[in-house]
Amino acid sequence: MTSTIKGYKPHLKQKQIHEAINNSNSKYIVCNIGRQFGKSLLGENQCLYWMINDKGCTVGWVSPIYKQCKKVYLEIKKATIASGIFQYNDSELLIRGANSTLQFFSAERADNIRGNTFDYLICDETDFFKNGIWDEVLQPTILVKGKKVLFLSTPKGKKLMHRLSMMRHTDQRYQYFHFTSYDNPLIDPREIDSIKNSIPDHVFRQEYLAEFIDGGAGLFKDVRSAIGTCEQKGTLYGGLDIGRADDFTVLTIGTREGGVLHVERWRHDEWNTIVTKVAAVINQYKANCYIEVNNQGDVFYELLKSKCTNLIHPFTTTTQTKPIMIEDLALSFEQKELILPDHDWLIEELESFTYIYDNKTRRVKYGAPNGIHDDGVISLSLYNQARKKLAIIGKYYN
Questions:
Q1: Strand runs (DSSP E) across 156-235, as ranges?
Q2: Per-residue pLDDT, 2
Q3: Fewer CB atoms near the end CB (10 Å): N or C, the chain?
Q4: pLDDT for 369
Q5: By C-alpha distance, which of 57, 32, 36, 34 is closest to 46?
Q6: With contact defined as beta carbons under 8 Å apart, do 274 and 240 qualify?
Q7: Concatenated DSSP letters for 318-351?
């Protein structure tokens, strides 16, 4: 009995990309594409094509974070499990079949990728990888056996995708595609038009027209100019964002004037363990902290309160309060009030944080692009609120 997999029917623009991958001599296919084009579906089906038609090959898929890798892995598993062709390792995010292998990796755990050798590689949301991942980690994996590399991403300023897009002018191995959200025939263009009227022009041009915009769509400007050191003095304040699922719990502590002294984050520990670690830092600095109180945050707050006595205060983030505190943080950057430690992950979060269009509410909200954490941003925002509001409350009661 022969098992078969019925592939998807690509729309015209997706078909052009597949043809370039499978029927040209180009090794590097760079696809700079707007939101909701069908990038992931294209990549998923291309992986299956390679595995089945080039038996014995090794395919690697890299996404910015683990949660994104797992999502794609589960989508492929769901689409193919009935065929009986493949075997699945959920813990390793590994698929085997036709004597080929497909494994998923997170760019945030780059050391797990080192030493691999791939025949085919897909870099999903390439512009949201940390700096240096392609040059230092991924490119070496396709030097020996590498046949094709597919870069899929919506741009974020003029970063790696912009550099890769320019390679076609000097290197014949590169082929470049630029498509907008309008190029997906399954989307009513009026829906995209309604988004255009609801968000800032530079955000729309980047996210939906896939234009390389100087400075990207970042909300916080000149973040790197805020990097520096500051002196510990006076009463200290803090902000704690509670991590959920694969998110981080992040604690930020600094001075009344805006100098950040300490930023630390935790993940994948038991709640009691994280509470103990957070409490130790707060008590060490004797910092008056705002704690995000939402869902798990309520439980966390009660646990932490027993260890930090009068140092912590609840802060409920809602659709009304979150925009206010984010805009206040943006203003603090504009007014040069903040001094930040040089933590790459925090700087990258701040530079990536942007406007997000919510298709359900048809409103603009603030948040990180798909695949990027924003826990450090929220923690810093809470600290920013604490140094202003808790300082006033303290003076009032004194």
A1: 174-179
A2: 55
A3: N
A4: 65
A5: 57
A6: no
A7: -TTHHHHHHHHHHHHHHTT--BB---HHHHHHHH
User: pLDDT tens digits for 3-42?
Assistant: 566 668 899 999 999 999 999 999 999 999 999 899 999 9
Whether 329 and 239 have beta carbons less than 8 Å apart is answered as no
Q: Which two tokens stand for residue 63?
A: 């996404």
Q: Where are the beta strands (DSSP E) in the chain?
A: 28-33, 58-63, 86-89, 94-97, 100-106, 120-124, 148-153, 174-179, 236-241, 249-255, 260-266, 288-292, 312-315, 354-358, 363-367
DSSP 131: T
Alpha helices in the chain (DSSP H): 12-23, 39-53, 66-80, 160-166, 189-196, 201-207, 271-285, 296-308, 321-334, 344-352, 375-397
- Tokens found for residue 329: 């943080």
Cα separation, 166 vs 33, whole angstroms: 15
Alpha carbon distance 77, 75 (integer Å)? 5
User: What was the pLDDT predicted at 398?
Assistant: 32
| Beta-ladder partners of 237 | 254, 288
Residues 6+ apart with CB under 8 A from 45: 7, 8, 10, 18
The residue behind tokens 């604490």 is: 386
CA distance 238 to 388: 11
Q: Give burial (CB, 10 Å; 0-12/13-18/19+) of 252.
A: buried
CA distance 339 to 349: 16
230 φ, ψ (degrees, to nearest 5):
-145, 165
Mean pLDDT for 118-127 is: 95
Which residue has tokens 């909200």? 365
Given a cut of 80, is residue 294 above it in pLDDT? no
Other CB atoms within 10 Å distance of the CB of residue 152: 25
Residue with the bigger pLDDT between 395 and 79: it is: 79
Identity of residue 322: K
**Nearest Cα to Cα of residue 214 among 280, 157, 298:** 157
Closest CA to 277 of 248, 254, 317, 298: 248
Which tens digits make up the pLDDT trace of 182-215? Answer: 999 999 999 899 888 777 677 788 889 999 876 5
Alpha carbon distance 233, 255 (integer Å): 7
